[in-house]
Structure formats: C-alpha cells, structure tokens
Design a protein that fits this description.
Number of strands: 0
Structural class: mainly alpha
Shape: elongated
Helix content: over 70%
Largest sheet: none
Number of helices: 2
Oligomer: single chain
Distance between the termini: 26 Å
Length: 93
C-alpha cells in the first residue's frame, strides 16, 4: 500500500493548466484603445490597470503552480527512494 504519483499524469495536469491559461490569454486579448468614460476616465483607467496587473500576477502564479505540479513527481520519487534507502535490508540479526 502507498501513494503513487504517475509522472505522465502530473505532466498532463501541468499541460492542462498551461493550455487553459493560454486559451484564457487568447480570449482576453490586449486592451483596445483608450478608455473614454467622461469625467470618470481616470478612475476607470486606474481600475482597469489594477485589474490587468492582478490578472498578470494570477497568471504568473498559476504558471508557477503548473511547473511545480510537473516537478512534484521527481520530488516524490526522490523522497520515496531516500526513505527506502534508510530501511533495514531484512537480513538476519
């Protein structure tokens, strides 16, 4: 009994996350032209800038998480191997 972390599954999850981000970025596109909201233009522009900054940070964090998912299989395997190497070999006393 134990846990298994199949590297192919982890890589697939990482790829799914990255592909979803790429689709989201493609759908969002770039800002179009300048904002014209009359007297509220400065406030709307500031709000939109904050929104884009937050989305950029969220995208970067999600990309980092996707990379960590892919890397976790190797960490799991190394940790498991290290733990196994510390166990007795089962020889007689």
């Amino acid at each position: 009994m134990g846990f298994q972390a199949d590297q192919a599954d982890l890589d697939g999850l990482s790829n799914t996350i990255n592909e979803s981000l790429n689709s989201l970025n493609a759908a969002a596109g770039a800002p179009e032209g300048e904002v014209d909201a009359g007297e509220s233009t400065a406030a709307v522009t500031g709000m939109m800038a904050s929104l884009y900054e937050s989305l950029t940070t969220m995208t970067q964090d999600t990309q980092q998480a996707a990379a960590e998912v892919a890397d976790s299989g190797g960490v799991y395997t190394r940790t498991d191997d290290q733990a196994a190497s510390g166990l007795p070999t089962g020889g007689s006393n």
